[in-house]
Specification:
The protein is of the alpha+beta class. It folds into two domains: about 1-45 and about 250-380, no CATH class; about 60-235, no CATH class. Helices cover about 55% and strands about 15% of the residues. Strands 1, 3, 4, 5, 6, 7, 8, 9, 11 and 12 form a ten-stranded mixed sheet that branches. A hairpin with a 4-residue loop joins strand 7 (about 150-155) and strand 8. It starts with a helix and ends with a helix.
Length: about 375
């Protein structure tokens, strides 16, 4: 109790210095948490993937389509449980700034392969029976105020024309990792319209989603699919859904590395500031530590006072920084919802934040504590005016 009381009194002996040091730690831990959350958001799409799905696309490029008859051949490959074609639509809702992911999908097989998109049975049935029906994510519906039954107009870009869809269902994610900002409509509607307007673009899909009976055979099934279409006019590249998502992340890998370096650099800088603060404190209290040792306090107890003060300052500042991370992340998530539909603070970030605060406290106290232990009593007492 005496040790704790003495530590707390020492902390607030210089209120301004302690306050500014804590503020620096708060800012450092908050910055660290937000930067790490940003990195996690970048990888969110890959982390939310399933090991039971493969993605087959054109080997040349993702922008080159595949013939729809490929689906039938893929369905016959051993180990394949389901197949569904998809197309990226990229329509404009009222204004170009209103960006959200839009996909033309094969309704029933697609929903069966993506159980993470939870839809009410009645809404699922309504969607499957309405050629112009669409399903939207909960967050997307909240953003634009859509309700079941509303008509959503889109102006085509990749597929020119004015398109209209009726909201037949609003899905929610099975967990926080599920993207709830997407827009799905029937591929048949898109294809029938293309047959009437641009026949040469009909009967093609951007990618083919492949369901697996056994995820352990993913590599084997992928190779067998690509063998079928080898030396054809449209060769394929089949990869796991996670690898497919990571291919997009890799385009910005340099930025991600820079963000991660900055996040740790922030901690290093505040560690140096904290170390300087504790060194100043230890020098000022040299006579006090010498007096304590003269009264019988062992050197380890004196070092414990320094460590206790340093840890208390860093952990209080770190705790406040972690608490502020959640509301700050919420504000950022609102502003960057179009680019990062999943922007949640992972538990790992909180753990790293606490570990960083603890590390700052320990490292900052190492040298001052060592000097206080080694300093002769006579030398310390000699400095008393």
């Amino acid at each position: 109790m005496f040790f704790l009381k003495l530590t707390l009194r020492n902390i607030f002996r210089h209120k301004l210095r302690t306050g500014l040091t804590m503020l620096g730690i708060v800012v450092a831990v908050l910055s660290f948490g937000l930067l790490r959350t940003l990195v996690a958001a970048w990888y969110a799409g890959a982390e939310a993937t399933s090991s039971t799905r493969l993605i087959t696309r054109n080997a040349i490029s993702l922008v080159v389509s595949l013939p729809t008859h490929y689906k039938q051949k893929i369905r016959q490959v051993e180990g394949v449980s389901a197949v569904a074609g998809m197309n990226w639509f990229a329509g404009i809702y009222i204004d170009k700034k209103n960006f959200f992911p839009q996909f033309a999908v094969e309704g029933a097989p697609f929903l069966d392969m993506y159980p993470e998109y939870v839809l009410q049975p009645a809404e699922r049935t309504a969607f499957l029976h309405d050629r112009k029906g669409c399903v939207v994510g909960r967050k997307l519906a909240q953003t634009y105020g859509w309700k079941v039954g509303d008509v959503v107009p889109l102006k085509g870009t990749i597929f020119p024309g004015n398109w209209s869809f009726v909201v037949r269902g609003i899905y929610h994610g099975v967990d926080k990792k599920t993207d709830e900002s997407q827009f799905f409509f029937h591929w048949d509607y898109l294809n029938e319209t293309l047959k009437a307007t641009v026949p040469r673009r009909a009967n093609q899909v951007g990618i083919i989603v492949v369901g697996l009976k056994n995820s352990e055979r993913a590599a084997e099934v992928g190779r067998n699919i690509d063998k079928i279409f080898k030396n054809s006019l449209a060769e394929t590249l089949t990869e796991t859904e996670k690898a497919f998502q990571l291919s997009f992340v890799s385009m910005t890998e340099t930025i991600l590395i820079a963000v991660q370096i900055v996040s740790f650099l922030v901690i290093f800088i505040i560690m140096a500031v904290m170390a300087n603060t504790m060194a100043m404190t230890a020098r000022e209290r040299g006579p006090e530590y010498a007096t304590l040792k003269a009264l019988g306090f062992p050197p380890l107890r004196v070092a414990g006072l320094i460590f206790g003060e340093s840890l208390a300052i860093s952990l209080i500042g770190g705790g406040l920084g972690i608490l502020l991370t959640y509301p700050a992340a919420g504000l950022i998530a609102t502003e960057l919802a179009k680019f990062f539909p999943i922007f949640n603070v992972p538990r790992e970030v909180i753990t790293l934040g606490l570990a960083s605060a603890l590390l700052i406290g320990v490292v900052a106290a190492l040298v001052p504590a060592w000097r206080a232990m080694r300093q002769p009593i006579t030398e310390g007492l000699r400095s008393i005016a």
